[in-house]
Every structure is written in C-alpha cells, then in structure tokens.
Amino acid sequence: MKNKLFICIALILGSTLWMGAANPVKPDSPNIILILTDDQGWSHVSKAMDPKEAESFSEYLSTPNINKLGDEGMRFTSGYAPAPICTPTRRSILCGASAARSGTEFRSEYIPADHMTIPRALKKANPAYYCAHFGKWGEHMISTPEECGYDRSDGETGNHTGGMPNSLGVKAHDQGPDYFIDEENPKLTFSLTDSAIRFMDHAVKENRPFYLQVSYYATHLSIVCKQETLLKYYRKGVPDRMYPRSFAAMLEDLDQGIGLLLDALDQSGVAENTYVVFMSDNGGQRFMPGNDESRKHLNAPLTDFKQSLYEGGIRVPFMVRGPGIEPGSYSHVPVVGYDLLPTFYELAGGKKKLPDEVDGGSIISLFQNPESGKVKRDAGALIFHRPIKKSSSAVRQDSYKLMLSWNKEGEITDRHLYNLDHSVVESEETDIAGQNEEKADQLQAILLDFLKALD
After folding, report:
1. What SS3 state is found at 330?
2. Whole-number Å distance between alpha carbons of 118 and 15
3. Quick one: which H or E segment has residue 259?
4. Which residues contact 356 (CB under 8 A, 6 or more apart)?
5. Among 25, 43, 111, 236, which residue's Cβ finds the most Cβ atoms within 10 Å?
C-alpha cells in the first residue's frame, strides 16, 4: 500500500514539474537568438564572408566574436537584408513579408500587429515560447513589440534612442565632432546586452524555450565609442577603406558586446539547443563624419551603399550557428531576412501552413545541404522594391539579378541583368541583359507578377 502511495505521489509531482507554469515545454523546441546590427556592410568583418573573395573582409577591423559565429556555424555568402534602409527591413523580418508588401520606406500603412509575426509564429508552433525584443525597434512601426506578440521589450525605440546628434547635444552630424566618447555604454551596446542576458537567464530558470532578438544600435550614426578602443586604431594607422578610425572602434565595441552575450549563452547550459542568427539591417552608410573618400570604397568589393538596391545596399553579413550545422561551412544559395519567420516556425516544430502573406521560405534544408538544399518561396526568387526614393526594383534568382528603373508614371525606363556568380568586383559593372534577353524577360515577369499581385 505504501509503495502504491509513493508511486502515485511521484507521478503527480513529476506531472506537475513537466507542466511547469501554464504550458508544457516541448524538449525538442530550440531556443533562437537573432542578433541584428545596424548599417554593417557585408565586408565589415575581420574574416572573409566568402572565401573566394579576397576583399570580403577587412584586416583593419576587429570582429572576433562575430567571426566566431561563422566559424562555429554557416556563413551565407549571398545573405540579404530585405531593404536598403532600417525600418522596412525590420518590418519585413518581423512579419516574413517582403518590403514590397510591408512597406518600402520608413512610413507605411502596413500595421505589423495585424499580421503574422515571429513571436506569434513561434507561439503557434509551441505556446510555451517566451519572446523578447531588446534594442532598436524602428521608426514609424505603428505597432508596439507587445502588440506584435513579444512578452518583453524596450518599447518603441528608434535611432534617437541609441545616439543621434540631437540626443548628444548637437543639431546635426556636420555641426558637432566627428565622434563622441562614452567609456561605459557606447551606443547602449552593453546595457542592451545586459538586458538580453537577464532575459535569457530567466527563460532558462523557467525551463521555457525562448526567442530573443537583440537589435543593436551600432554601427548607425552618430559614431560613439570608447576612448581606449579608439586609441587602438590610431596606433593601428590609416583605415583600409574610407571609414574613419572611430567607426572601427565603434564596431569593435559592438563586437565585444556580442561576445558577452555569446559567453553568457555558453554558460547557461542551453547553447547546444540554441540557434544564433546574425545579420545586419542594410549595407554600409556612405557618409560618416571624418571619413576619407579618397580611400577604397567603404563597401568594397560591392557596388554602392545603404539606400541602394545594388549589392552594397542590401547584401549583408549573414551567419547561423546551431544544432546540426557544420562548423565553418558556407552556403552560396541566396537567402534574405524575410526567410527567418518561416525558418524559426519550422525549427519550433510548426506544421500548419503559414498565411499566404508570408513571402519567405524556410532555409533549414541549407543547414544540412548548403549547396543542394532548396528554399521554397511562392515568388520563386528574392524580391526587392524601392520605387519612391530610388525608382528601382530588383529580383534575384540563383546567380542572376535583374534591376529595373521606373519613371513617375510607373513605366520601366531601364533594366540591367547581372550574373553574380562572376567576380563580385565586376558583377554589377557588367550588364548582360542584351546578351541574355530570355533570362532578363523571365526575371522581369517574376518581378512584375509579384508586384501586380500586391497592386
């Protein structure tokens, strides 16, 4: 009788512990961390993003912790931000919808809270997910993080939260010093990291799978860095590209913050069941106080800068580390930030079909098969659209990229076709549309069909 009573009590206690708080935890649900940096160009790392491209990194910069993610996981050599500016990219990542659908500029009528979002998708897969967003939310996002399904956040933060001229005592970038010194918390990098670590520790103690997005304010202007870090680059000499020494210092301070987050993850005991994704919200900014345009192109070897749909504006460092991903691997298959929502949903165990308005496709097949894996998107290609400010659109499928130019009446005025399998340095200098009209027509049809479907 006593033995039977003991067994009953043990079963009840075991069941209670398994149930946790309100929702049972699926032991196979991984944790996911998305690290999003700001205005960090594709080559703004100190180890090659593409081993075939000698200029896809900088020996002058120092990003050992970012490099560690690639060394312990997979680098996507053709990883893209959904847009060449920050808020459209952030809306797109949040909702898994291309900027053509969710808004191509800072202001948009698209209301994220009315659509599928990353935290909603994760909780659809497993209601136990605990979700947080810390750092830069975006400009004119309309919806708050909590309205989009986050459990914890810093609120409706933007550029000014993380250090813009008027928050640093001057009216504009050209009316103040080239850089600002903050010995404790440049660009809020370290307080932001602390918030992320506290959330992660709490989720682990609660035995809940978590999603954590850490949206750093660096390397967006204004330039803010530690004096000690800056002095290191003055001793190092002249930068290898047009950016100033202070930019290199700000980036290293950012890398140190990322290192603290990764160290805390390693110490948490859940690193082996955690995916870490790293990317930037767009390419590098052309104008920086103190830069020298006589030196090499800031985004070399890519063409153009932030704001543009050329590679320098949208191709960004993109890495994933996690279970089942071979350390030090590379994938040349094009991927984009709006692929993350369906990827995270599948990682979380989601089975039901996502809404048709989710334009991205899961990239999980690439984790095991970097070159032969397939990403299924309804459009069959990556779509980029910025008709208002830049009068341009682009579509990438496999190694081909087509760019269209528009007039004010919405008529196509020009088109260019590039083969990005060739040397990146020359890829957008050699237009092959005239030699390959069939491919140009095919990609143009994909792009126009997608845009017409969105009216």
Report:
1. strand
2. 30
3. helix 245-268
4. 378
5. 43
Residues 6+ apart with CB under 8 A from 109: 103
Structural domain boundaries in the chain: 23-380, 392-453
CA 239/CA 246 separation, integer angstroms: 10
Per residue in 304-354, pLDDT (tens digit) is 999 999 999 999 999 999 999 999 999 999 999 999 999 999 999 999 999
Ranges of H-type helices in 72-141: 86-95, 99-102, 118-125
Task: Establish how many alpha carbons lie within 13 A of residue 45's alpha carbon, considering only the half-sphere containing its beta carbon.
Answer: 29
Tokens in use for 412?
A: 């196509």
CATH 3.30.160 fits 392-453, yes or no: no
DSSP for 58-77, please give it: -SSS--HHHHHHHHTSEEET
Least confident of 17-26, 261-270, 322-331: 17-26
The CATH architecture that domain 23-380 belongs to is 3-Layer(aba) Sandwich (3.40)
pTM over 0.85: yes
The answer to whether 387 and 406 are in contact (CB under 8 A) is yes
